[in-house]
Amino acid sequence: MSKKGNLIIISGPSGTGKGTVCKKLLMKNKNVFYSISATTRNPRPNEKNGREYWFTSKSDFEKMIKENKLLEWANVYGNYYGTPLDKINDLRIKGIDVLLEIDTQGALSVMRKISHGVFIFLLPPSLKELKRRICGRGTETKAVIERRFGAAVGEIELGKRYDYIVINRNINHAVEQINAIITAEHCKTNNNLKILDRVKNEEI
User: Which domains does the chain have, with CATH numbers?
Assistant: First the structure.
């Protein structure tokens, strides 16, 4: 019987590069399955339904909330975001690691519900770089940019509540560190108790 897959949560303030790091991680590590979040916000240019997000209506999202079909959900800047439970448990039972890329509000919600997640906080190298990244999107108004930056600065303190902190100075280096964390988690004693018992009871 395979070990249960880990639930890996990568989170951090807006503008830290969560999406870019996760895409690179999935290219480097084929043993990780990306759990797509659902959202009621409009797609950005080049975003595709079922790839970056499941884009859904407010009424359909609220129906998922009532039917307890979400691991977590949050209202961020007037839009709903949430993680559908479909597939997550089945994949983990098969020994497959599942990756969630969510904001800090969603990550805190998951922390309250489960104790076995691997929580990784992605941190920008500086506030100056954080603001540059937020402005560099070119998809939001000045007012929205200022609101996102102000919220992001406030969220940095939340990093103390995570298991690991990775500074995203360089994408490749950040991905290497996250892969090292995933490997370390698979080597943890609690994840290998059945193997210990099997080896202990082997006939020789």
Answer: 7-200 (3.40.50.300)
